[in-house]
Amino acid sequence: MDKAKDTTHRITVCTNCRHVGKPCRPGLDLLKHLQLAISQAGAALADDFSLEGSVCMAGCERPCTVSFQATAKATYLFGDIEDASDIDALVSFAKLYRDRPDGLTREGERPTALGGKTLARIPAAIVSAERQLVVLQ
Fold first, then answer.
1. Which of 16, 42, 112, 113 gives 89 a disulfide partner, CB atoms 3.0 to 4.6 angstroms apart?
2. Can you tell me whether residue 60 is helix, strand or coil?
3. Rounded CA separation 114/38 (Å)
4. φ, ψ for residue 109 (rounded to 5)?
5. Beta partners for residue 120, in sequence order
6. What's the CA gap between 95 and 29, in Å, rounded?
7. What domains can be seen in the chain, in order of their start residue?
8. CB neighbours of 62 closer than 8 A, spacing ≥ 6?
9. Span 21-70, pLDDT tens digits
10. CA distance between the termini of the chain
């Protein structure tokens, strides 16, 4: 089976700093450590998520930034992520996010280490509406 086709969720880590014009070492380290933590969390979680690095995600004032995305779910962007201290919180959030049909979570439901680190929650309403139009046609 092709793993890319089986994954329904994506975690993206900012790994390229536009201010210095080169790769972001903390972002690259975070991506590597997060990949290891997700794989150690078990096959069920690892199979549900793809992880990737990305160019600047416009969270420059609050690095490192990490996003969680899935079709027909809210998208989250977190900032001020610390590699060592926030890895467990990101894995816990991944489980919570995966298990929510719409991806929505309240601040109090998220791991406490992510408190105050939510930069954006983008609703999936537009994606859902576009899917309905395709189904109706």
1. 113
2. coil
3. 17
4. -85, -20
5. 77
6. 22
7. 9-122 (3.40.30.10)
8. 79, 80, 117, 119
9. 666 778 889 999 999 999 999 888 899 999 999 988 888 788 889 999 99
10. 31
Q: Which two tokens stand for residue 15?
A: 């790994």
pLDDT in tens, 116-134: 999 999 998 654 455 555 5
As a whole number of angstroms, the distance between CA 114 and CA 112 comes to 5
Read off φ and ψ for residue 135, nearest 5 degrees. Answer: -65, -40
Name 129's Cβ contacts closer than 8 Å, sequence gap at least 6. none
pTM of the shown model = 0.82
DSSP bridge partners of 121:
76
Radius of gyration of the chain (CA): 15
- Categorise residue 21: left if φ over 0, alpha if ψ from -120 to 50, beta otherwise: left
The residue among 75, 64, 69 whose CA lies nearest residue 117 is 64
Residues in the chain: 137
Q: In degrees, to the nearest 5, what angle opens at C-alpha 37 toward C-alphas 46 and 97?
A: 55
